[in-house]
Amino acid sequence: QVQLVESGGGLVQAGGSLRLSCAASGRTFGNYHMGWFRQAPGKEREFVALISWSGGRTNYADSVKGRFTVSRDNVRNTVALQMNSLKPDDTAIYFCAANNVWTIQGQWRHWGQGTQVTVSS
């Protein structure tokens, strides 16, 4: 079992940067692939970025590729999402998730409560 708590959201102007962090409890953090997803008002939740359990493999949605970077620290049990060149379309609630299976479309087992990111134009 793992519990996830996101932080770092806020209000930023277009072109600015934010760094989201997700802290995980439990001794098995290193066994999980970690993902970031987001949900904008009136839209379905969508994939943003994934990082493998070792940190050696990553995957990004086309909409954030080149602007966002996902990383993890398996000693501190944290995963981060560095977001640069933010756009108003990036406004959403951002969720951290953990899963034993590497998947974009499938079900993810553990979710955080989310953190709001708002990008003003």
Report the order of strands and helices: EEEEEEEEEEE
Given the C-alpha coordinates, what overall shape results? globular
Counted by DSSP, the helix tally is 0
What is the first-to-last residue Cα distance? 40 Å
- Main pleated-sheet profile: 7 strands, mixed
What's the count of strands? Answer: 11
On the 0 to 100 scale, the average pLDDT is 96
Structural class: mainly beta
Sheet-strand content, in percent, reads: over 45%
Output the radius of gyration: 13 Å
Measured as a percent range, the helix fraction is under 10%
Low-confidence stretches: none
What attributes does this structure have?
seven-stranded mixed beta sheet, 121 residues, four-stranded antiparallel beta sheet, 11 strands, mainly beta, globular
